[in-house]
Design brief:
Blueprint (H helix, E strand, L loop, with lengths): L1 H10 L1 H19 L3 E3 L11 H12 L5 E6 L5 H12 L4 E5 L16 H7 E2 L2 E8 L4 H15 L4 E3 L1 H34 L5 H19 L5 E3 H31 L4 H28 L7 H31 L1 H6 L10 H9 L1 H19 L4 E2 L11 H13 L3 E8 L3 H12 L4 E5 L1 H4 L11 H7 L4 E8 L6 H18 L4 E3 L1 H35 L4 H23 L3 E2 H30 L4 H33 L3 H23 L1 H7 L1 H6 L7 E3 L2 E2 L2
Parallel strand pairs: 1-7, 8-13
Antiparallel strand pairs: 2-5, 2-6, 3-5, 4-5, 9-11, 9-12, 10-11, 14-15
Length: about 700
């Protein structure tokens, strides 16, 4: 059955190339309509308290305007008022608030309320508050560019819309830069490590087409997260490239044996299917485990990455053979020797240090296992931009002079004036709460509701709820901010039980922390169990799955523990995704080396098998690992958003660590457990002396 399928691929090669080319062209068109979501809050589960609060607030109250803070360079009051008037004329700006809205500017500054003055005007610098209800990215961009034209380049701006605008300006540019450079690096690596000058074009063309089809097929998801959009092309390229290399190496081996082109390809497909498929499935499971995350970005990324690996496998086993046979004559005319030196010295060195390496790696794995549990984490979006970015520097300048402005909203039942007043008093008594706006203190219950201006009433009072707007002086994400949220929830719980709702960016970040922290165990356990099962079936062994997974898991612990010793914080979403991605992406190296070790153990004793497994599988591992490392590093270097950037750096570092352990640790583990492998692996008979099988 398999052979008939492979012969069909060989026979209908031109039809296959045509079909895949059409799919690629359709995908280019479809990919333009896949939406990109930059808001992590949208991926919180619907059961999250802050998500429920947002939905209720959207149903009960008009939308709260977004706010942009603009710090003008030193200027007099008249100049500030002129700028304010101009800003008020900008389309989509619903209001501009400044000192003249709360104080009589005819009064001398020293006679004004000092707290109010400090909010708007310090050291001849004015801080204006611009309100807008805009949501569409195109209109947002036009509005921000209009504001910039009015206030000039010396002014500083801060606010969620400004950060979103800055990230959007870089996202597509970063992606194209990273992919372009990764392809160039991959091309040159392949050029000097494959045996034909056009082989790199076949490999990159195949994986590139699979990435393109994956991108177009995302139309069925409607939209994907910004993390997924940035990450999936690089990850798919890195994890899939070794499938192509392995298949073409097999094909070239059989051509050297004298088989004609078509027969060599059929045999290559037949004999590489098992190892490539098991490698691919372990990767698919590693990625698919992310789907179980309650935090929606994990599911989003898991679907796209798992789908991408499946499409890469299909492309490698269907499109690549067809293209290779069409180009076979050119391929053979452009053959050259591989420039990779013999790996025998490396293999001999690994054997010499066999009694030192495994204990060292075991100690390192234990130390780093505990270290990675002590990392400091960021959970929200307040640090997505790098500290040296202009927007972040502007934000820091504004906060140094005028402090943080962090808003939350609490909704409580509107049936008790006494409880509402008690809640207001409790909030105003908190040192970090700078302002509370509520129906009681803005309007007062003594005034009949029908006499209250509609715009005021709608913002603070609905049929079921009263909304209090809180302003705190704490940053968007910090232990103190989370402690304040706990305090507010405790007080509201005492007064209203479960009949209250708290919303805000910091509240969503707090809930995000709880959600993704709980996701870690589910993702890790699922990916490990799934990969163990695939390896057990592939090798028909009870011990090999444990050896392979322990090896890669040790590399993961070291990778994620290094930031602790460097004193650098991690984005938790990067930490969580990387745990699964590194396991899925680099367990292939362990599978490939182990497969070669078992093959050699049927032909020669364990020492010679150890040496041969490193020599014969090392080239494919080095090529794939080098490309993955380079891709991850470029991803980190050119990503403006610090979440994908951190995933890239961790992936590059993790790939190097996985290769070190696969070359230095795994072969020794196989060597040391050789008798157990033979006993616990079905239909396995090893040679223990040259020419003699074990009885």
């Amino acid at each position: 059955m398999k052979e008939a399928l492979f012969r069909g691929i060989v026979k209908y090669k031109k039809i296959i190339i045509t079909v895949f080319s059409i799919l690629g062209l359709i995908s280019i068109f479809l990919a333009r309509f896949v939406g990109i979501n930059n808001d992590m809050v949208d991926y919180l589960p619907s059961s999250s308290p802050s998500t429920q609060a947002i939905h209720v607030m959207e149903d009960e109250f008009p939308p709260q305007p977004s706010e942009i803070r603009v710090l003008l360079p030193p200027s007099d009051i008249t100049g500030v008022l002129d700028v304010k008037d101009e800003l008020a004329q900008v389309s989509e700006v619903t209001g501009v608030e400044w000192l003249d809205d709360e104080e009589d500017l005819e009064k001398p500054l020293p006679l004004m309320d000092q707290e109010t003055l400090d909010k708007y005007y310090q050291d001849d610098q004015a801080l204006l508050y611009i309100s807008t209800e805009i949501t569409e990215p195109e209109k947002r961009d036009e509005m921000i560019e209009s504001i910039e034209a009015i206030v000039g380049t010396d002014a500083q701006m801060d606010g969620p819309l400004i950060q979103d605008y800055e990230l959007d300006q870089h996202t597509t540019k970063d992606l194209y830069t990273t992919i372009s450079l990764a392809v160039v690096v991959a091309f040159f690596v392949l050029l000097f490590t494959t045996s034909s000058w056009i082989e790199p074009l076949l490999i990159l063309g195949t994986i590139g087409l699979a990435i393109l089809i994956n991108s177009g097929s995302n139309i069925f998801l409607g939209e994907i997260s910004f993390v997924t959009k940035n990450a999936f092309p690089i990850l798919q390229l890195g994890v899939s490239i070794d499938y192509s290399i392995f298949l073409l190496h097999r094909y070239e081996e059989y051509r050297k044996e004298g088989l004609v082109q078509e027969e060599a390809m059929v045999k290559a497909l037949k004999n590489s299917l098992g190892s490539v498929l098991s490698s691919g499935l372990t990767t698919v499971i590693g990625f698919a485990a992310l789907i179980l995350m309650k935090f929606g970005i994990g599911a989003d990324m898991g679907i796209v990455l798992a789908k991408g690996v499946i499409l890469s496998l299909l492309s490698v086993f269907i499109f690549l053979p067809a293209m290779t046979l069409v180009c076979a004559d050119i391929l053979e005319k452009t053959m050259h020797k591989s420039f990779i030196p013999s790996l025998n010295p490396l293999a001999q060195f690994v054997y010499k240090v066999r009694y030192i390496v495994v204990p060292l790696m075991a100690v390192a794995a234990i130390v780093f296992f505990f270290a990675q549990r002590q990392n400091d984490f960021y959970y929200g979006n307040s640090r997505w931009l790098p500290e040296d970015n202009t927007v972040m520097q502007d934000k820091q300048t504004i906060e140094e002079t005028f402090g943080h402005k962090n808003q939350m909203a609490i909704m409580i039942p509107n049936d008790s004036e006494e409880k509402e007043k008690e809640m207001i008093q409790s909030l105003e008594g908190l040192a970090d709460v700078s302002e509370v706006q509520a129906y009681s203190n803005e309007v007062g219950w003594a005034i009949p509701i029908q006499y209250v201006p509609e715009d005021t009433r709608e913002m603070l009072h609905s049929e079921d709820y009263t909304r209090m707007a809180l302003e705190t002086s704490l940053p968007a994400e910090s232990p103190e901010t989370f402690e304040l949220i706990d305090t507010i929830r405790d007080k509201a719980g005492d007064l209203f039980g479960d009949d209250y709702l708290l919303a805000g960016d910091s509240v969503s970040t707090y809930d995000l922390k709880d959600v993704i922290s709980a996701d870690q165990k589910i993702v890790n356990i699922t990916s490990i169990i799934g990969i163990l099962i695939v390896i057990m079936i592939a090798f028909k062994s009870l011990i090999l799955p444990a050896l392979l997974v322990i090896s890669i898991q040790a590399a993961i612990w070291i990778n994620l523990g290094l930031p602790y010793f460097r004193g650098s914080a991690l984005f938790y979403i990067a930490f969580l995704i990387l745990s699964s991605v590194q396991l899925g992406a680099t367990v292939d190296y362990a599978v490939l080396l182990t497969d070669r070790y078992l093959e050699e153990r049927h032909l020669q004793p364990k020492k010679e098998a150890l040496l041969a497994s490193i020599e014969k599988s090392g080239e494919s591992i080095l090529v794939s690992g080098t490309i993955m490392t380079a891709a991850g590093f470029l991803f980190g270097l050119f990503s403006t958003n610090q979440v994908p950037a951190q995933i890239g750096y961790l992936l590059a570092q993790g790939t190097i660590l996985s290769m070190i352990i696969v070359f230095f640790g795994l072969p020794i583990l196989l060597y040391m457990t050789d008798p157990l492998i033979e006993k616990l692996t079905l239909k396995t008979t090893f040679i223990h002396k040259k020419g003699h099988h074990s009885s």
